[in-house]
Known about the structure:
The structure holds 2 protein chains of 2 kinds.
Chain A: E1 2-10, H1 15-35, E2 43-47, E3 51-59, E4 66-74, H2 79-89, E5 97-101, E6 104-113, H3 118-131, E7 152-161, E8 164-167, E9 171-172, E10 175-178, E11 180-182, E12 191-193, H4 197-206, H5 213-230, E13 234-235, H6 239-246, E14 253-258, H7 268-279, E15 282-285, E16 292-299, H8 308-339, H9 342-348, E17 352-354, E18 358-359, H10 360-378, H11 382-392, H12 399-403, H13 410-418, H14 423-431, H15 446-465, H16 479-493, H17 499-514, H18 520-536, H19 539-549, H20 559-588, H21 593-600, H22 608-622, H23 625-648, H24 664-685, H25 689-697, H26 700-709, H27 717-735
Chain B: H1 11-24, E1 28-29, H2 44-47, E2 56-65, E3 81-90, H3 96-106, E4 116-120, E5 123-125, E6 130-139, E7 142-153, E8 156-157, E9 163-168, H4 169-177, H5 198-216, H6 219-238, H7 253-272, H8 278-299
Parallel strand pairs in B: 1-2
Antiparallel strand pairs in B: 2-3, 3-9, 4-6, 5-6, 6-7, 7-8, 7-9
Amino acid sequence: MAELLIELLSEEIPARMQARAADDLKRLVTEGLIEAGLTYADARAFATPRRLALVMGDVPAASPDLVEERKGPKVGAPDKAIEGFCRGAGVAREALEVRETPKGAVYFARIERKGRPAEEIVAEVLEATIRSFPWPKSMRWGAGSLRWVRPLHSILCILSDETGARVVPLEIDGISASDTTRGHRFMAPASFKVTGYADYAARLARARVVLDAEERAETIRAAAENLAFSQGLELVEDRGLLAEVAGLVEYPVVLMGEIAGEFAALPPEVLQTSMREHQKFFSLREADSGRITRFITVANRETADHGATILAGNQKVLFARLSDARFFWENDLRVARGEKMAPWLAALENVTFHNRLGSQGDLIRRMAALAGELAPACGADAPRAEEAARIAKADLASEMVYEFPELQGIMGRYYALEAGFDADTAAVARDHYAPRGPSDAAPQAPLSRAVALAEKLDLLAGFWSIDEKPTGSKDPFALRRAALGVIRIILENGLRLSLRRFIESQLMRFEIALAPQDDSAHLDALRQIVREIARHGVFGAAYRATLAALGRTHRDDSPLGRLNARIPALGQDLMGFIHDRLKVDLRAEGMRHDVIDACLAMPDSDDLTLLAARARALGEFLATDDGENLLQGYRRASNILAQAEAADGVEYSFGADAKYAEAAEEKALFAALQTAEAQIAVALGAEDFPAAMQAIARLRAPIDAFFDAVQINTDNQITRRNRLNLLAEIRKICLGVADLSRLEG
Amino acid sequence: MAGLDALPKSFQEIILRLQAYWAAQGCAALQPYDMEVGAGTFHPATTLRALGPKPWAAAYVQPSRRPTDGRYGENPNRLQHYYQYQVIIKPSPPDLQDLYLGSLEAIGIDMGLHDIRFVEDDWESPTLGAWGLGWEVWCDGMEVSQFTYFQQVGGHDCKPVSGELTYGLERLAMYVLGVDHVMDMPYNDPDAPIPLSYGDVFRQAEEEYSRYNFDIADTERLLRHFEDAEAECAAILAAPAQDPKTGKHIVMAQPAYDQAIKASHIFNLLDARGVISVTERQAYIGRVRALARACADAFLETEAGGARGSGEEPGA
């Protein structure tokens, strides 16, 4: 058994590609070896800015000899078929064996494959791996044709065991595999030989290369925290930056520097963003005030002056960068304080949001209108929500956000405060983008909820209006994230609203935006519909009321007439998209998909809070004995009913009458139903789904007793119809809780 | 050479040292191209010579103009006219990184004290239809050069691949010389009888050009010039290769390319004047790229571009 060590030394590999490349190297080589019949024990891959390395243990000296049997044609088959089989199997005709099978005598070929030496297999697999390596971007260099992420300089590939190390013979585009590598580019550039992984790791460490990215990251983190602690500061955690910086150095040396006092007035987010984006610095802050006063930079080497020159250089670059940031900040403050951000809002009129959906200014107006409509349901005041929405995106035109787009919203809050808006209104600028991802909280302040919902619904309605929905993995406008945002804002705040209405009124606003702007009669009608939706709460009634007011009684093939079908269809489709995202969410919680479907089929399922409460209650209830009773009672009633309805060709829904009840069990069921109906009505009125479901479950015993004692299909047609109508009553009650017909099992 | 070990004292000394260093590495020490360009890459010694199979090695200073970066000579490090130092070697040698690091040492950057890093930064020039992979090189956190392996120029795959180095001379020199404002940087030896700062040489020009670029350049005339350059480029390339006067086969790739350069610079001026909208921008860039591509196609039909023999019909 041998150990295999591979190292591919190149010019600097982009930090963002290293971890994935190490995984790919491991995957491709191990898969290649396994496919060729070589086993291994333990494979570990590493990446540094200049090298990918892989070590695996217990690789046998050769792949095993294999014997394969292949079944061929029947004895007596045409010669051509038999010869073809021999060719395919690579055996002579004389070597074929004849065996008796249930289908008669059949030729069999015995194919022996000799094992191959590990060296040969490794060389083949590594060459194939290098030639087909899945770099996100690769290049050629010099006069060669090989592609790699940057020029590849050397290949170390050795198999080592107790007898010593052997170089695997391999040459790719003029690069021959060897047992040598090099150390740190500046601190130990000489080449050296290695005899195995342990020797390799030890010599690399002496040559100032920390092979393991985790170890480099941990070194950086620990040293940074110590330096921060020494100054009574705390390190602002930034995992992404830590991983990136660990990919920029082979030998991390952590240095701390000071931020000149003249930048103290800049918001901490600005300092942090400028330092991270431009210079890959970590921020150190005062725990109590949150002010960032120092930075950490990570150098790739030790120096005789202990980093003094490096730190001075970095500090100088920082000074220039922060001077720029301060310049933007001060210019922006003038606009915010002096002109209440008006020039920015004016500028946004000329910034395209999307070439078919108008400018940022149009977006802001639509968002403000919808935020006002949503405000009551979000616990906010409508005029304040509209005002907050109108200034929420002003910072998009500021110099700071132009320079650092990731500060959008954060700057908006600062500038809104400077412009004299109250803290809640200003916070909307920051929070209306939330939640920005799974780890970001949904906004909780009433104003922010309203505007955040409006922002996302506007985005969704807009792209639905122009038929740019996400398909497969393509979602360039992050509409799935917007839908999840809508769901989270509603559910996490327990908001109660009929989403369909707001979707449809926003779809109507896009109809207005997309309509020919010279047809004022049509535009007036569209605006009237939007107003009517606010009054009636549904599109259909609003549309009919508007047509009636215009004296148009029938819908025709005019643009206005087509809306009758278009808006509900778009609204339903978009609602379905949001429901699909909610299903994914609820299923991730462990909820059964049929339970979700049973609740989605209810008419008020566009009230997501109600929908989720119903689904959770039903899910929990079905897991209990009572739940089982509910389901069995419903099924027994509805099965018999379905058969009778199919046979009779009618629907039994007329309403049963207790006076035709004959048997005692039948009378008891009528009584139980009467009690239950009242209880259920109260419970559903209070949206107490568990109580409603329990009330239904209590019907199980009377239902069972009824079925045991009473024959439904009697000769007396009045009695029979009455009993079927009684079952219909039970079915109706059950379906009032959820569409139980969709439950499985 | 005396004094090479000491730190350079002036802007021009840094240029001279780079020129001497790359000449010593075997590069042809060329002179700037005599046209207004946005970057050293536009010099035909890079754009055109990166095409075709013939080996090439050149180094030169190229004055570069970015009209939108004008700040009337007041900003410490923004200029509408500045210098790039450009090195191009085809095929890229295997030790290009080491050669590059040697050039930093030649201008006084001590590798034992500084932290040099190669940070991913891929290069693309939409107007030249060119792209490559490489890095920006950081010295103590400051970008001092762009390092690129050309993969395509003018829409053609580069075979072999050229290695290109671009140094932003003012910024690099300010760092080496420890100067905070570009205008304060010594241009010649500060101990010379007549010491001149960068500001003495260029401040007034920066002011004049800033005003011209932003407010005075006549946009209608510029638009006409753009269209003239475009038309001239097409006309040059449309002329038959067979020259009736000399009887030679003469494809005029370089005169045509001059017109492409001209169109590109005029586009930059129009951009600085703020008369090009976002949508038009893409269209203009596309027009310049079409010119650059046509010139690249033509260059590949010339001897320098690797076509066989001049003065005869190809294939004759």
